[in-house]
Write a structure and sequence with these properties.
- It is a single chain.
- By secondary structure, the chain is mainly α.
- It contains three helices and two strands; from the N terminus they run H-E-E-H-H.
- Strands 1-2 form a two-stranded antiparallel sheet.
- The protein is extended, with a radius of gyration of 20 Å.
- It starts with 7 loop residues before the first helix and ends with a helix.
Length: 124
């Protein structure tokens, strides 16, 4: 059975275009999320500045990186450490692994609880 020769140039163009599209998609929702939300990790409440902003990531709550609603409802900002932890927990869950904190009560802290007061103090 004869097979068609592989068009390497065409494959290279397809891969390059897919990478460009992924980079634009990444920049698009990251920039929007950074404008929408305070630069604070949603898990550990670590604060970020322009100097260390590259350590703050956009996490997709439903783990679908193509689900980017304009209101940002599927995003949360997490530091790289909390983001890695969240994905490791998700992989364990999908694979049926047991989590060490499974029996622990859920976190009740709210890192943005006093945000309005802090913003008001800062504008005076």
């Amino acid at each position: 059975m004869p097979s068609k020769p592989i068009d390497e140039a065409r494959l290279d163009r397809i891969v390059a275009e897919a990478r460009r599209n992924a980079e634009q998609r990444e920049l698009g929702y990251r920039e929007r999320a950074l404008k929408m939300y305070p630069w604070v990790c949603g898990r550990c409440a670590r604060e970020f500045t322009r100097a260390n902003l590259q350590e703050l990531t956009v996490h997709h709550r439903n783990h679908n990186h193509d689900d980017n609603p304009p209101d940002g409802s599927n995003w949360e900002l997490l530091c790289v450490y909390c983001h890695d932890n969240e994905h490791a927990r998700h992989i364990d869950h999908v694979r049926g692994g047991v989590l060490a904190v499974e029996d622990a009560p859920p976190a009740t802290g709210n890192p943005f609880a006093d945000l309005k007061a802090m913003l008001e103090r800062g504008s005076k």
